[in-house]
Design a protein that fits this description.
The chain contains six helices and ten strands. By secondary structure, the chain is of the alpha+beta class.
Length: 168
C-alpha cells in the first residue's frame, strides 16, 4: 500500500514509463577500491579514480567506520527522475526517505546487474562531496565534478538517468 501511494504521489516526478527498481547487494567495504573497480571489468574507467582526486574514504561516505572492513548486505533502489539538477535530486531523495548511494554501493550494484548494466545510466550522488559524482554509463565507470555547469555549477540530469539510493 505504501509503495502504491509513493508511486501515485511521485508519479509526475518519475521519468515517463519508468518505475523504481530494487536490488539487494553485498557491499564489500574491505576490498580495496582500486581492486573493486578493476573487478568490474568495465570497458572504460575514468582515470580520476586512481588519483588523489577521489580518496577511498569518500567512496565509503555515509557508512559507519565500523563497517569499513566488512561486508554489508544493502538494498539499493534505482530511481528514475525527470529532468533535474543534482541539488533537486538530492532534495527529492531525502524527502522520500532515501540517501544517495555511495561509490562502493554503486560498484556492488554494477556487479549485481552484470550485463544488464550495459543498458542503463546510473548516478550515485553519495560521495560526501557534492562536487564529485560517480556513475555507471552503459559499460563504463565515470567520475566528474559539478564545476562548470549552470544553476550554481550543478549537473543537469536528463530523463535517461537513474539515481542509486538507499533507504534511511
Amino acid at each position: 500500500m505504501i509503495r502504491f501511494l509513493a508511486v501515485l504521489l511521485l508519479g509526475p516526478l518519475l521519468s515517463e514509463n519508468a518505475r523504481a527498481q530494487e536490488f539487494t547487494v553485498t557491499v564489500d567495504y574491505s576490498r580495496p577500491l582500486l581492486q573493486f573497480i578493476l573487478d568490474g571489468q568495465y570497458e572504460t574507467i575514468s582515470r580520476d579514480f586512481v588519483s588523489q582526486n577521489f580518496p577511498e574514504h569518500a567512496a565509503k561516505y555515509s557508512v559507519h567506520p565500523k563497517h569499513w572492513n566488512s561486508q554489508v548486505i544493502t538494498t539499493i533502489e534505482i530511481i528514475p527522475l525527470n529532468h533535474t539538477y543534482t541539488s533537486d535530486a538530492l532534495i527529492r531523495l531525502h524527502e522520500w526517505g532515501y540517501r544517495p548511494a555511495n561509490f562502493y554501493e554503486l560498484l556492488a550494484l554494477g556487479e549485481e546487474l552484470g550485463q544488464d548494466q550495459r543498458y542503463r545510466l546510473i548516478a550515485a550522488l553519495g560521495s560526501g562531496d557534492p562536487r564529485h559524482i560517480t556513475y555507471l554509463e552503459y559499460n563504463s565507470l565515470g567520475w566528474h565534478t559539478n564545476e562548470g555547469y549552470s544553476k550554481q555549477n550543478q549537473v543537469f540530469w536528463n530523463g535517461e538517468w537513474w539515481f542509486a539510493a538507499v533507504r534511511h
